[in-house]
Every structure is written in structure tokens, then in C-alpha cells.
Amino acid sequence: MSETDELIIRCMCKDVRAQRQLYDLYKARVMGLCRRYTNSIEEAEDVYQETFVKVFQSLQQLHDNKQLEQWIKRIAINTAVNYYHRHKRNVHADENMGRNHCNNDYTLILSQFSDELLISLIMELPDGYRIIFNLHEIEGFNHKEIGEMLGISESTCRSQLNRARQVLQHKLKGLGILKYEDYG
Questions:
Q1: Strand, coil or helix: what is 101?
Q2: What is the distance between the alpha carbons of residues 128 and 111, in angstroms, rounded to a whole number?
Q3: Are residues 40 and 34 in contact, defined by beta-carbon separation less than 8 angstroms?
Q4: d(C-alpha 150, C-alpha 53), whole Å
Q5: d(C-alpha 55, C-alpha 71), whole Å
Q6: pTM of the predicted protein model
Q7: DSSP SS3 for 64
Q8: Which of 64, 80, 65 is nearest to 30 (CA)?
Q9: Phi and psi at residue 132, in whole multiples of 5°?
Q10: What are phi and psi for residue 50, nearest 5 degrees?
Q11: CA 149 to CA 133: how far, in whole Å?
């Protein structure tokens, strides 16, 4: 039996030390994910706490212990999206905004910047843009999946993603990091 298997069994038996060990083991990764979906550290902590309440309540539903990290990550994403729904402030952009398609080299261009800079710029995006950007660009969900999660149309998802990209592009240009020639 692997250490992970043993830890999961102990957590399912309500062993507080095992639960704390699992909680601490994934804290940095899950907190980072929660932080990307929220407006503040306090909100991220709320989502993080709620995520682990759900993890401990539903550990018996984990079918493959090798998938623990991905399973926790999915719970955190769903918890963050649900938190967004409970606290959203009518931030959805007009469906017609952002119809200009970004250059296909977008990901390549972003890869040239530090994680810290990109995270700080992403955190400045309006809630709807930030959630969609994270779900699509970082987590890899498609527009249909995101639309279903957020209760919006695929076209709204696409337009908000494009708008988020435009806002990030504008911010990078404003910082003098991105020149017009770099990004058409």
C-alpha cells in the first residue's frame, strides 16, 4: 500500500492528523489555484477552506488514488466557480465586445513573461474575464464546458476570453513590455 493510499484511508477514518497532512500537502498548489479565481487573499482562503471541507466529505468518491491531485484540483475549480456565482456582481461583458480574434501566437508571447507578472495582471482582470481566462488558458477547458459551468453561451465565453486577452495585451503594452509589432 502506498503512502498516498494510507493517507487517504486515514483521512476517511476521520484521523485529524492525516487530514491536516493532506491539507498541508496540497495547500500551496490549491491556494494558488483559488487565488487565481478570486479577488482577494481572504476570498481565496474561503474557497480553499470550502474545497477541503468538500474533499474530506467526499473522499470515498475518489476512484483512483493516483488521481488525488487532479481530483482535488477539480473540486477547487468547481468550488471557485460556485463561489463566483454566489458573489458575482453583474460583470459579464456585452456579448458583442471583444470579437477581434487574437493572434495565434498568444500563448507563445505569454510564455516569455514571468509567472509573477502574468498572475498580477490576470488578477487585475474583471471577475468574468479572469474566471474565463483561467478556465480556458490555464486549466484547458473548452468554451462549451466553461459556458456550462458559468451558465453563459459559448459565444459569450469566446468574446469574454478575447476581451480578457485584449485587456492583458493593453496592460503589457502600457508597461512597455509588449510592442505593437509583437502582437497584431
A1: coil
A2: 23
A3: no
A4: 22
A5: 9
A6: 0.68
A7: coil
A8: 80
A9: -65, -45
A10: -60, -40
A11: 13
Query: Is there a contact between 152 and 105 (Cβ–Cβ < 8 Å)?
Result: no
Let me know: does 12 contact 56? Beta carbons within 8 Å: no
Cβ pair 180, 109 in contact under 8 A:
no
Residue identified by cell 487573499 is 41
pLDDT at position 102, please? 43
Low-confidence ranges of the chain (pLDDT < 70): 88-115, 177-184
3-state secondary structure of 183: coil
162: its cell numbers: 478575447
Residue found under cell 456582481: 89
CA atoms of 44 and 37, how far apart (whole Å): 8
How many other CB atoms are there within 10 angstroms of residue 137's CB atom?
18
Residue length of the chain: 184
End-to-end CA distance of the chain: 54
Cell of 57: 466529505
- Give the number of other CB atoms < 10 A from CB of residue 169: 20
What the block records as the C-alpha cell of 30 is: 490549491
8 Å CB contact between 161 and 136: yes
Amino acid at 119: I
Distance of alpha carbon 173 from alpha carbon 95, whole angstroms: 25
Angle formed by the axes of helices 3-12 and 16-37, nearest 10° = 100
Query: Taking the CA of residue 41 as centre, how many other CA atoms within 13 Å lie in the half-sphere pointing to its CB?
Result: 1
* Grid cell at residue 58: 467526499
